[in-house]
Amino acid sequence: MKTELTDVTETQKTISIEIPTDVVDAEFDRVARGYTKQARLPGFRPGKVPQTLIKQRFREQILHDVMHGLIPRAVEEALQTRGIEPVDTPDVRDVDLAEGRPLKFTAAFETVPPFDPGDLSSITLRQASAQVSDEDVDDMMRRLRERAAKYETVEGRAIADDDTVALDMDRTDAAGHVDHREGVTVQLGAAGNPPGFDAQLVGLNEGDSKTFAVQFPEDYSVPELANTQQTYSVTVKGIRRRVLPDLDDEFAKDIGPFDSLSALRDHVRHDLEAEAQDNARRQVRSELFRQLSQRIPFELPTSLVDREMDRRVEEFARQLASQNVDPRQAGIDWGQFREAQREPAWNAVASALALDEIARREQITVMPEDVDKEVERFAVRAGRTPAALRAQLEKEGGISRLYAGLRREKAVDLALSRAKMAR
To answer: Which residues are bridge partners to 150 per DSSP?
Structure first.
């Protein structure tokens, strides 16, 4: 077999392959014999149809089978011989196939060349503060108090600021189209209320009706309402007020297993400190990835970036589906959304390649027991047995991804241990 490698760019390559005539003819004969055993042609007993007739009658099918029998093996052998690992399935082009002649074709592919990720000790990372102030604790206590608020029915007075109101409501646009809603709940003072809407409700009593117009500004957050005038007709069905609980020991006991307000504050501080430490670690990792991505000395393989962009789109669609939102009905321009992922996808691919190269140069390995622990951890989170999860991962090719992910995590730990930390 003859091969010729062409460097199109540092990452894009083509390899021209020529398979000898005798190998091609032997494959033609092997495939034709298979059709001979199965063919049913008038005037011939099963298995006795001449091979020349078989090759004429099933020419296209035989050509297809010969290509699929020879080309993948030849590409794999040629790449292995040269020590090349493509990042995606090679694209086979310009196939010249006929019986009695060599099979010639070209395979185009992308690969990642070896490179120097640089001195890891030259990386400087800033450690963010994980301190939690008394003001932070007070703010969380305030939010806990607001979440525990109860609503009481208001009788004998009109609507006032901060009330929650139940309305039957018609909204009519300039063209006369009416949007009718019943039992709408409006919290006066909420940020999403139409401009001036709350002021029109203040002073109304239960059972009152009112019609008024609202002019929406040009920069309103809802495009279809921006710079329009809408007419509202409302009927007040009920008024409630929010009642906040006192911040005392009883409040703490209602929130959870806390004997006192002081114990609840200590718990809140501990949680905030843990969250701040997690955020600080994420920021350090993010900055490490950013600096590593800048050390890639070549243009990234397009297929890797495209694959990461697709992964991000699919992940977001799954998130919507998990929230009972149909991605197809979400009103999202998916082409635009995908294109918006190009830069973060590029950074993610670049940092991953840098970590892989660090792992290769430092001879970082992952032991089978490391994978076992990771499978067990995922199984606990998924509520499944480790054996069932491992079987699924093996079927889907996920074990190799686990190995790669753990290897990169070890490379991250190594890079962090050598980087300079500044405060």
So the answer is: 243
3-state helix, strand, coil in the chain (%, to 5): 50, 20, 30
Question: Which residues, 6 or more positions from 128, have their beta carbon under 8 angstroms from its beta carbon?
Answer: 279, 280, 283, 284
CA–CA gap between residue 327 and residue 357 (Å, rounded): 37
Q: What is the DSSP letter of 6?
A: E
The answer to whether the CB of 106 falls within 8 A of the CB of 93 is yes
- H or E element that contains 5: strand 2-7
Nearest to 113 by CA among 6, 10, 5, 4: 10
| 10-residue stretch averages of pLDDT, the chain, 423 residues long | 90 93 91 74 63 74 89 92 87 91 94 91 90 94 93 92 94 92 92 92 95 93 89 96 92 93 96 94 94 93 93 93 86 91 95 94 91 91 89 84 91 95 81
Helix (H), strand (E), coil (C) string for 61-107: HHHHHHHHHHHHHHHHHHHHHHCCCECCCCEEEEEECCCCCCEEEEE
Contact partners, residue 85, CB within 8 Å, separation at least 6? 79, 111, 112
| Token output for 246 | 């006192």
Q: How far apart are CA 423 and CA 420, in angstroms?
A: 10
Cβ contacts of 278 within 8 Å, gap of 6 or more: none
Strand 12-19 and strand 2-7: the pairing is antiparallel
CA distances from 362 to 358, 407, 417 (A): 6, 11, 13
Extract the tokens encoding 274: 């843990």
Write out the DSSP string of 137-186: HHHHHHHHHHHT-EEEE--SS---TT-EEEEEEEEE-TT--EEEEEEEEE
